[in-house]
Amino acid sequence: MAASGTAVGGVIPLSQRATMLRPPATLAIMAKAKALQREGAPVISFGLGEPDFDTPERIKRAAADALVAGQTHYMPTLGDPETRRVIAEKLVRENGLEGVTEAHVAISTGAKQSLYLVCQCLLGGGTEGRRDGGTKGEGASDEALLPVPAWVSYAPMVQLAGGRVRELPTEAKSGFKISAAQLKAAITPRSRVLFLNSPSNPCGTMYTPGELREIAAVVAEAAATVAPNLVIVTDEIYEKIIYGGIPHFSIGSVPEVAERTVTINGLSKAFAMTGWRIGYAAAPGEFGARLMKAFEALQGQMTSCITSFLYPAIRVALRECAEDTERFRQRFAQRAELVCGRLAAIPGLPAPRPTGAFYVFPDVSAHYGKRSHGGKEIRTGMDFAEALLSEHHVAVVPGEEFGGVGKNHVRLSFACAEEEIEQGMTRVAHFVAGLR
Ligand code: PLP
Fold it and tell me: Is residue 130 scored above 60 in pLDDT?
């Protein structure tokens, strides 16, 4: 008889889906930072992608009250109508998404689940009306256009849905933004999704309203000609964290593309609520309502509704907490100033100035070919990050998993206290000064 956990003749195989994704190399360095910390090393982490602030008190109170009052049972899969209505009102009022009603909104377990579901609904599974679920494989040619460097989860989500990522490379000198012309040249009849993320993780840059209008015009023209099924998926999770003078603009407010745009957002970043796991997707019109029905079908078989007693907290956050988000925004603006000032004084770490989110993304390639004080040769962003961590106990995220030129960059998150930024940047300066 085979031993427990093994099949006759070998190990029990896992599905292709479960094994096709590369384990992120960046996780290894973050794990090392944690291990060093546990051993008592004074690690300063510029690694985390979450605000260090506490969730505003009144949001916590709303959830606690609902919990105590017994709001602890299943609720409608996509959220209770009142909360979906509050989200729809927010999107119309703040983002100009005309015509969005509660029927066009789905609440999920973080923006991450919303994005996952969008990919599942749009990519890789053949077309509506087919009964074989697209198993004949033609769905694999569905393309998702992804400006890179990009947040690490978009590409795996596309892959898991059976789609194919088509990277649109960007670089520092264009502020890590695609141009309308570049997009136009990349669209093919197979293009199904265009991801946008402004403000951006990992680059901290934002598209201007004018640039987004130009992109919208390209999408509208392509939709009328070569790519009738192209949908914009715009991830606006950092919309409240902006400080560079560029206003946040929702591409879904442009009439020509409104009914082919899915807007993704959530409470994690704006309200310091990463652990609550609240995100949402919205899209207007007939397409939006149909998409939300598809969300309901999928989410209903996966996770059902989010935690029931969180709904009142969502309403409080979106209706009553503008002062809190403004307070957080101001702190991030100060930190951006601080970190950029310190970075500019370190030779060979050029970085476009972030205008949103809480990341800065310097290019470290000027130091390739040098050796650190501890003797490590620097040939990649990963080498730079590893040596910085082991020799100076500063954790940054190497950029290779973000795609494109990311491999020559490291991401510094400044979602940490000002004193830590000061100390950490002093260590970075020493580290760079010691490179020979
Ligand atoms: N989108 C981007 C660009 C992010 O950086 C993150 C989290 O880091 C998410 C989505 C996921 O957010 P949530 O916590 O709502 O799942």
Answer: no
- Average of pLDDT values for 232-243? 98
Ligand 1: lining residues by beta carbon, under 6 Å = 49, 110-112, 151, 197, 201, 235, 237, 266, 268, 274, 279
How far from 141 is each of 104, 144, 147, 161, 188, CA to CA, in Å?
28, 10, 18, 11, 11
**Beta carbons within 8 Å of 429's beta carbon, 6+ residues apart:** 342, 345, 346
Which single residue is written with the structure tokens 């009553």?
A: 320
Say what the pLDDT of residue 137 is: 47
Q: Which residues pair with 107 in a beta bridge?
A: 280
397 three-class SS: strand
Give, in degrees to the nearest 5, the angle at Cα 17 between 12 and 20.
90
Q: Are 364 and 394 in contact (CB under 8 A)?
A: no
Q: How far is the CA of 52 from the centre of ligand 1 (A)?
A: 15
Compute the distance from residue 63 Cα to the ligand 1 centre, in Å.
Answer: 22
Task: Dump pLDDT digits (tens) for 321-367.
Answer: 999 999 999 999 999 999 999 999 999 999 999 999 999 999 999 99
Phi/psi at 252 (5° precision)? -65, -10
CA distance 434 to 430: 6
Question: From CA 283, how far away is CA 110, in angstroms rounded?
Answer: 17
Tokens matching residue 377: 């040769």
Report the C-alpha gap between 312 and 65 in whole angstroms: 9
- Mutation probe of ligand 1 site: the residue of 27, 30, 112 with most atoms within 8 A of C-beta: 112
Give the model's pLDDT for residue 127: 60
In the reported structure, the alpha carbon of residue 111 is separated from the centroid of ligand 1 by a whole-number distance in angstroms of 6
